[in-house]
Specification:
The structure is a homodimer.
Chain A: H1 9-21, E1 30-31, H2 34-41, H3 45-57, E2 61-64, E3 68-71, E4 77-83, H4 86-92, E5 97-108, H5 111-117, E6 124-134, E7 137-146, H6 164-171, E8 176-185, H7 188-194, E9 201-211, E10 214-223, E11 229-232
Antiparallel strand pairs in A: 1-3, 2-3, 5-6, 6-7, 7-10, 8-9, 9-10
Helix pairs in contact in A: 1-3, 2-3
The first copy, chain A, binds a DNA duplex through helix 3.
Chain lengths: 233, 233
Amino acid sequence: MNTQTFRSWQSVQEEVLRRIHAREWSPGDLIPNEADLAAEFGCARSTVNRALRSLAESGLLDRRRKAGTRVAAAPVAKATLNIAVIRHEIEEGGASYGYFLIERAFVAAPVQVSGAMKTGSAQKLLHLRALHLADGAPYAFEDRWINTEVVPEAASEGFDRVSANEWLLKHAPYTHGDIAFSSVQAGPEVADILGVPTQSALFAMDRLTWDNAASVTKVRLLFAPGYTLRTRI
Amino acid sequence: MNTQTFRSWQSVQEEVLRRIHAREWSPGDLIPNEADLAAEFGCARSTVNRALRSLAESGLLDRRRKAGTRVAAAPVAKATLNIAVIRHEIEEGGASYGYFLIERAFVAAPVQVSGAMKTGSAQKLLHLRALHLADGAPYAFEDRWINTEVVPEAASEGFDRVSANEWLLKHAPYTHGDIAFSSVQAGPEVADILGVPTQSALFAMDRLTWDNAASVTKVRLLFAPGYTLRTRI
DNA sequence: AAGTGGTCTAGACCACGCG
DNA sequence: GCGTGGTCTAGACCACTTA
């Protein structure tokens, strides 16, 4: 028997990956328990635990107490998206960033918005519409609602120099958020703002962030055609 | 001083989150080192390490040896997408799944495909076009290329009953993949297949998976209008 | 009831990267 | 150089879940 030692959790992980990949352990198979693997690899159980836990988090293994560890039969690919501040995203692409505030209003929101944000329908929210530019060309249109009861400082911020996209990160903590991606056709107004034909296919990102039970902000970002969200698996 | 104890790594994490959230530790701030926190919390350093490492992985903290741990100034939101088998995705939504193979051919691929897959331009690839249905309605159009040099068994599989989407997961291991999401307009043929107007905005997912240095498969999925990819942050 | 992963501890050494 | 996080160890107890 091959009794090569694997002392670091990364090397243990690599060996496990190799076995899965080489079909020594096939999808659905039960693999040896942590103690046995530790003995085989010549390392502590906690080292094996670290390696296997990490693989379980990425979806490649299914682990259950008493039932043991199995190679995932249908590994749900878990892709991690990095959603950065738009300015950083543009600047990292080597382009110059531009920002233009189109509208700033303190108004009662439509019911779809107040409903989603769970604010009273009479409560006024700060409504912002703005354009992000890369090298002078329209990059993304931002349509945002801010709950000023949760972020009162936003009421005295003009948002004419700094985008809400960036300002909120520093001033409004949030506990969690819902994100949705979809594809939409450009309406006449948005088409005009982005400088694209009406009915162009736009990539949309909708985000609703929460501070515990209170909504902080709701935003829709419509990206100019050509935008691609990339990740690695 | 408050010397409440936090014995589990989750409770340590919650306390750290509370302090960040309450602005006791603001974005950019250096927080105490692991040893000090362990002393304060009345637990072992490794427990603190586990809590902080986890927060760093999710982007809320920046950690560097010697430089210490800081609250991230512009936390890059890391959203994890679960990309499942289409059949499971549909069935979990409570709908019945349908599958229809449109075309299966063994041909030399266009240069964009062979270039991306790094296969020889003369090498023949298995080309599949298929439709996934939810409750009988078109759900997604799949256009796929399979490298049969890497997955020879695919050559003898009809793919008329089981989608390549599902078959490959069980038969073709991969080491990594690139994923891209974008928005595209439906061309006449795709519009016809999906039963939507030409130029409809479709959500597109492009995946290219690799087995080490060899490409396994390249697929474009075009989802019918209304499709939304959701996640939580 | 018993086996498995989940976690905690105390201590140790190491690797990185500021200053 | 030296402080910090990164990791490993051996051992222990616990929690969950299945048999």
